[in-house]
């Protein structure tokens, strides 16, 4: 323990994994401190990766050189592309994972990283020294950490990825237990240390549903929810490393519903509910309420969906998705047994709520470094977010920026127009959420150009420049990009004859053509796919079309770019306008109080958040267009 590290990471959940991996691979020594080295990457709630908008985050993490996508591919037991009935902007990959295999794969991956030490301990205190950097608001600088076992470990940067463990308390009915996850103790001391340094703190709440014994469920009374017959992997590496995908046996999930009897039983437990009696002070996630919250807020709804999702291939537990609860265990079981298929169910573990400390995000900047302490970064649920994917997205950015800080290089800051990760971090800072933040596709203004299918085209060059993407992968993506560009140009400048294509058009119930027509014009029809169109051409003498037909990914990109070209062009124009405001930088020490015309609300928000650009200032609630004009005029003067 006399060893000094470049970077210490506090917590080994999904944010800690990505931060560790990025920092080590960028050439720095890392100490990863965790309460339980066997709980690394543990899926404490739903055993799934991805989902609506979250799948976009996983693809972006992978394109920057992260590991979540690869771990999901190796351990996924059901893959599904969500929202396929809608436009491609909201298609989102999701996989149900074997939670034991996922954690095991994460542990194995980290143990094979040279330059990473995994330390079983608890960080109780940060060691800092006074620090004042010209033009920056830092008051302190990181020197190291003090641990629960009494060690002092020196370092240059600390990344806090402590999840739901800071001063955490679990609630089930009247029962109250210290701990951040079932069977795991809370982390104490660090919150008090940060408060002493001048940080603000708050309390949030999350929850988890019961786990059920699979052998006591009558699945004949439920609806089967199969995965995709041809699964799509998350990671760009997977097709290279595997001739056959998926790795694991695939399983079904199942759908059932609550009913009025369920709701009436749950209501009998409200008197002892920590949620309704005020025992729980933390704010819970609005988008994912507990079952008692659902029936209280939506009393007019006669039923709610319950998804039964296997947690492992070899085990016997089923995750009761949609039934998160902090009611007493006997009420949970009695209510569960009124749900079709669960009449004789056995509850392996009751649901519970977790209340924990977080740090409001006006205290960090876009690099995820805190504004008060130089070298201290926060990532994951400590920033008020929810979800494995949001945590991992922050983790990789924090790890990268800690490494870049030590290299004295410019930080990596992703704009809202570049990535969902950019939307996530920007939202955290300008909105300062007071409830667990979750990413949605509706959060992104430019979601048609921020699709999950083009994450590698958008971000892999950045990952490569950081040393996190290997040469063979960037070479492949460059070849794909060139093929896409050539394909779009060809299809926009070459025609196909009526004789070649009319049979297809008639079959697909769309109007025939009577003279040669550009491929791109026909492709804009909803009834026509690029695969079908290429099938009408004699590609034996058209090597470019033949090459395109051999790559599903390239075909998909070309088809989307052509079909939605008008919308994409309009969105790119919006991005240009957005970037103009983002490029007008506001100095960190800007004196807003000197602008007399600012409203008192705007002045308070601007001084608190300290936006880095005019564009970011425009997105702060309470800052009016007249306030923005006043700032620009003052800066020019």
The radius of gyration computed from the alpha-carbon positions, rounded to a whole number of angstroms, is 26 Å
Q: How many individual helices?
A: 22
Question: What is the CATH architecture term of the largest domain?
Answer: 3-Layer(bba) Sandwich
CATH class category of the largest domain: Alpha Beta
Q: For this structure, what is the CATH homologous superfamily of the largest domain? A: FAD/NAD(P)-binding domain
Largest sheet: 8 strands, mixed
Average pLDDT for all residues: 94
Q: How would you sum up this structure, described in words?
A:
- The protein is of the alpha+beta class and about 625 residues long.
- The model has no long low-confidence stretch (mean pLDDT about 95).
- It is built from 22 helices and 23 strands.
- The strands form five sheets. Strands 1, 2, 6, 7, 8, 9, 20 and 21 form an eight-stranded mixed β-sheet that branches. The protein has a six-stranded antiparallel β-sheet with strand order 14-15-16-17-13-18, with no helix packed on it. The protein has a four-stranded antiparallel β-sheet with strand order 11-10-19-12, with no helix packed on it.
- It has three domains: about 1-470, FAD/NAD(P)-binding domain, CATH 3.50.50; about 470-570, Arc Repressor Mutant, subunit A (Orthogonal Bundle); about 585-635, GidA associated domain, C-terminal subdomain (DNA polymerase, domain 1).
- The protein is globular.
- α2 (about 55-65) runs parallel beside α10 (about 390-405) and α3 packs across α4.
- The longest helix has 23 residues, at about 470-495.
- The chain starts with a strand and ends with a helix.
- A hairpin with a 2-residue loop joins β10 (about 170) and β11 (about 175-180).
- About 35% of the residues lie in helices and about 20% in strands.
